[in-house]
Design a protein that fits this description.
The protein is an alpha/beta fold. The chain has a single domain, classed as Sugar-phosphate isomerase, RpiB/LacA/LacB (Ribose 5-phosphate Isomerase B, Chain: A). The chain has 6 helices and 5 strands; from the N terminus they run βαβαβαβαβαα. A 5-stranded parallel sheet has the order 2-1-3-5-4, with helices on both faces. Helix 2 packs across helix 3 and helix 4 runs parallel beside helix 5. Bound molecules: D-ribose (RB5). The site of D-ribose has 8 residues, from helix 3.
Length: 152
């Protein structure tokens, strides 16, 4: 089971709550880093908070190592969260709208952060995406050569 840090903005709060419930029920160690209310707030604050936890757990890990923990970020579109997260060295954030992307980004990109758009992706699909993301391993091989070039 995975350690998961999850954050949102006001536009992702409802899906965040559903993710916390589902993933906790499945046995994952889920840490909700906020926000707690639907009061308007700024997604970069929560993206940086979640990514900071993922990086702290990663320590001196290299891109090919299986992540020690994962982040999940939810905003209205998922785009602002993914833009912010992918500015942070060591974070490989994937905005996913279907299970194919969720599986492939773990197998091929070793993504350590999943981004979701509450206003874009239905809740049932989003919950399945998150479970698949957490349960899929990196394949390494040629994919390691490629992810090593992202920040190279
Ligand atoms: C909030 O209105 C919205 O802009 C935000 O949740 C997100 O979609 C930004 O990328």
């Amino acid at each position: 089971m995975a350690t998961v840090y999850i954050g949102s903005d006001h536009a992702g709060l409802e899906l965040k709550a559903a993710l916390v419930k589902r993933l906790s029920e499945k046995g994952h160690d889920v840490h909700d880093l906020g926000p707690a209310t639907t009061e308007s707030c700024d997604y970069p604050v929560y993206a940086k908070g979640v990514c900071g936890k993922v990086l702290a757990d990663a320590g001196n890990a290299t891109p090919g190592d299986e992540p020690a923990s994962f982040g999940i970020l939810v905003c209205g579109t998922g785009i602002g969260m993914s833009m912010t997260a992918n500015h942070i060295p060591g974070i490989r954030a994937a905005l996913c709208g279907c299970e194919f992307q969720a599986r492939a980004t773990r197998q091929h990109n070793n993504a350590n952060v999943l981004c979701l758009g509450e206003r874009v992706t239905g809740q049932g699909v989003a919950l399945d995406i998150a479970e698949l993301f957490l349960n899929t391993a990196f394949e390494g091989g040629r994919h390691l050569r490629r992810i090593n070039q992202i920040e190279g």
